[in-house]
Amino acid sequence: MQFGTRPLESPQWAGAVDSVGGEQLAWLARTMQREGVIAAFGNAGGAEFKGSVLPYILRGVRLLGVNVNNPVDRMKFLWRRLATDLKPRHLDRIARRIPFGSLENAFDGLLEARVVGRQVVDFSL
Length: 125
Description:
Elements (H helix, E strand, L loop, with lengths): L12 E6 L3 H9 L1 E9 L13 H5 L3 E4 L6 H12 L7 H4 E5 L3 H9 L6 E5 L3
Parallel strand pairs: 1-2, 2-3, 4-5
């Protein structure tokens, strides 16, 4: 994916969950809509953040760090909520299961930008 370099890009997202960090996180900040929120919890793309303060000042973008080292009781509570009242009603439209044997095709689809939503690898299929 080609990331822009301007301090503010065309606003695209109301919210984002970022597990990559680095250049992708900076790009997300530049492309957030007014009052947009980014929940960041990973740094696979790097721990450095080279960004501008303009998305935060001019658009009111919020960057929330997600602490993944919560106590077990709290995590159980959160997972229970995510499985019930916080579960997206349209989950079947934004995520699909794929068998482990289809990973090569799935990677091709990702690299060619043909994938919409999320793919969850099901090792039992």
